[in-house]
Amino acid sequence: MITRRNLLKSTAISTTALSTLFISTGTSVSATDVPIGDNGLHIQDWFLDSFFDLAEDRAEAAAEGKSLAIIFEQRGCPYCAEMHRVNLARKEITDYIKKNFVVVQVDLWGSREMTDFDGSELPEKKLARKWRVNFTPTIVFIKPGTEKAEPSEMEVARIPGYFKPFHFLSMFEFVAEKKYDEMPFQRYLQAKFKVLEEKGIDPDVW
Questions:
Q1: How many angstroms separate the CA atoms of 72 and 161, rounded?
Q2: Domains of the chain as residue ranges with CATH
Q3: How many CA atoms lie within 13 A of 55 on its CB side?
C-alpha cells in the first residue's frame, strides 16, 4: 500500500507508451472479487492513503516524479465497478498508473473533510460540486509540480465517466507525457488508432 507522507509523427508518441498498446491479456475479475470499503467504494491497495490535503498529495506525487489523479466514485455505481473489474484488473494498466501517478479516491457523496488547493476546507461532496463532478466515475488529472495556482487552473484533463481499457490507458499516457500542452486528447487518440489499424487491432476490444 502507498502510505502517506494527430498523426503519429506530429504527436511524437513515445515508443514506451506505444508498446503498452499491444499487450492484451483480456483480464477481468468478478465484481464480487474486488473488495469494498465501509463507504461502499471499491478498494485498490495502491491508492494513496491520503489525509485529503490536496496540495500535500500533489507535492508528494511531485517528490516521486509523478502526477496526481483524483478518482470520484460512489456507492453502487455500476461503471465504477466496471472500471475496477475490467480496467484496473489489467496489469499493464495498473503498472503504468502506479509508475506515473499517485491516485486519491474521493466519495461523491462523502463527508470526510478535504483541503482544496486554495486552502479551503470542505467535505468530499461539496468538493465534488465545487469541481463540477456530477457523475461517477470521474477522474480529474492535476497539473504536476509544486507551484501554487488557483483550483480552477489545476485540472489538465478529465475522464468524464467510464472509458474502455484502450481509451482509459491512453488518457493516463496523454497526461503523463504532458501532451495536453500540445493537442486535444482526441487528436492524440487518432494517432494511436492509426497504429492499431495498421496492426489489425480493434481498440474497442483491445
A1: 10
A2: 8-198 (3.40.30.10)
A3: 13
